[in-house]
User: What shape does this take?
Amino acid sequence: MIAARGSIDLHSSDDLRERLTSLVDGGEERIVVDLTAVDFCDSSGLNVLVRAYKHARAHDAKLTVTGAYGRVENVLRTTGLDRFLIEGPPAGDTTAEV
Amino acid sequence: MDQQLVSAAFPAAAASVSAARRFVRRVLTEWGMEFVTDDAVLATSELATNAVTYAGTSFEVCCRVEDDKVHVEVRDHHPTRRIAMPGLDASSGRGLPSTARLADSWGVTYDRLAKSVWFRLPAAYQNASGSYTQPLPLADSGAPPVLRPGSGEDWPAAEHVEDPFARAVETVRDVLGAEGAAVLLTERDGRLTLGASDGLAPEVRTGGLRVADLGPEGQRGVPWFLGDVPAESAAHPIASILAARSLAAAPLRAQGRTAGVVVAVSAEPGRFEQSDAERLGRIADEVALSLERARVGELERSWRGWLSFVAEASDLLAGTLDQERTMALVAQLVVPRLASWCAVYTVDEAGKARPAYTWHLDETRIDALRKLLDHADPVPAVDVPGPWTGFGSAPEPVRAEAGSLVTDLVYNFPLIARGRRIGTIVIGRPKQDRFLRGVIDLAEELSRRAALAIDNARLYSAQMAMSSALQRSLLPPAVPEIPGLEVAVVYEPAGERSEVGGDFYDVFNSVDENGRPCWRFAIGDVCGTGPEAAAVTGLARHALRILAAERLSVPEVLSRLNRLILGEGTRARLLTLLHGEISLAEDGDGVRLGLVSAGHPPALVLHPDGHVAEAVSPQPLLGVLDEVDFEIDTVELKRGQVLLCVTDGVTERRAGSRLLGDEQGLERLLGSCAGLSAGAVAARVQRAVRDFGPEPSGDDVALIALRVS
Assistant: This one.
């Protein structure tokens, strides 16, 4: 599980992108991005999440997000990305592995 | 003192940097702290540049005096953005390293909502080395930012420091028990001027003293004495001018040359011997040392003044991308600080340099100067600065009208940007005012920056023309008439149209599945800006029209477009799109809308009573995965109802940490529009977006309002 903090936007998205890419490349099969401490995510932030999601899929890994609330939850819902990025009903300790 | 705390806020715009500088200069000047103004202004400039460039937020500047320190704080609203250290790149901000060098101490404070960088400077001048109080060593006289060694009248003479010469003459009198003592300073032209004196006879006039008057002993560079000089002796002019029967003297060696002489005099013969001369030599060395210190301090201060000037110039130049204004600015930076007049030449397509902007200190002479330059020899196409004499070839009437201008000293500085000679700056001043080396250096530095600024302005206008052409091609030429439906659109690209944005909209005629006329509309936002985003925008807009002509339904169109975007591979961009079909309601009341929102900010319906509701359910945005099926949402828009569709430039419009879309902000805004026409709703939303934050919006804004009339 990786926790992001603050705003994910044009200026901060590169770090997250690198981090997520390296987790996938490092062989992690289950990556959960904790957005509990993220208060804003713009389209560049979404772009990072989408790319990481696709990168993970291409490597038979799975990337999801958790903890989104307020604006971030809203933008995930509006863009329909919640369907891809948020797992259905939380199932026990899915976030404990990374 | 309660007056000693002042702060001001500045928007996140390039012009704020110079506004912040002016603010700090004004405050510190009002507080009588001119001696730290240059440093404070320069450091503020760096920090403000960082706030605008790297944090990208508005910022506050707060000045206060605390424990004899001037404390300046620049606070931006980006707590997480790290402080940039651009290093010593000559053409950009010098960043914190130079703040560190200028300030006594500095630091960064982070809190949850902001970051502030502060620095402190001594409020009282503490260094005994110098005391220049001018805000810029480059006063109107064009004095160069270098010290003229030995020039007595330029020496720092201030109450802050003990004058080293006054101290020296006192010491000489004390130590040698001399009746009188003087420090004489060597001028370039060989005159000796009085630096300080004590106890000289009232009839002594040092005005006519020259180095030659020191006699052969005095010019050997070692301490010497005259034991017994007959009164009015022609052999020892120095003694007779100082009315001395005996004297001891020692050269003042500073900056590797003899800067003057320290003399002890007596009306009695035989007062001094060799040992007195040697003691005097030691005193002279001490004085010389404090002169060296003064000079170093002085050079450093001039250097800072120089940096301030260049920082100011760079900033001013960076503040405009208009070619004409850039040239005017260059000329006004040069005049009167560096020269009496300035002409900026630009090179035309044929490679010929022509004066494009001319400026003279005395505005009434500008016309004559322009005429003179027009008739003079062409400016030489050289790559290095140099003196220029080209007025000789101007016809006599032109020369007569120009008067003394024809004898002015003229220098030209080539303007070279990106390896190309784009013009020349020519500066001039009356022949009796020489150009000093410092001025030439400064003008050369300025010409380098000016060249880049002028070239940037040229490129910018070219880019802008291209961008607006491209932007126009991405928007529909006209919006079709739809019976009974008011359609209003707003489109505002971010910034100054230098870059093509990712927002677009379209409204066009189509035919429904039963072959009846209908209309389709779309509003979309491609993630990112620039040519690659524009390519996806172009693809989307054309695909929508072509696929509609193929009679694909709205959901089918979106699925196809999604696959088309994904087919772009690495050039694919995320696209949020609201697409819909408008058909006239069968019962004649209003229209029927078939809508799909692919990841787009929700479309809202305003009822005549002010009630607002979301019209569509969110579906995934385009450009993520291809296994997405879209479903249509149907909305009946009745008389008086308004459908409002916006891009995230509206909902994510920022004021500090607040967004317009927070807490149903857009719903509340639309709710206040009940009873307005589509055009008035669009205008109100547009104005609300503009007025929401103090800073201009960084994102494109597009919106469509449909109202059944």
In short: Chain A touches chain B at residues 6-7, 11-12, 39-40, 42-44, 46-47, 50, 53-54, 71, 77-81, 83-84 (CB under 8 Å). The mean pLDDT of chain A is 81.
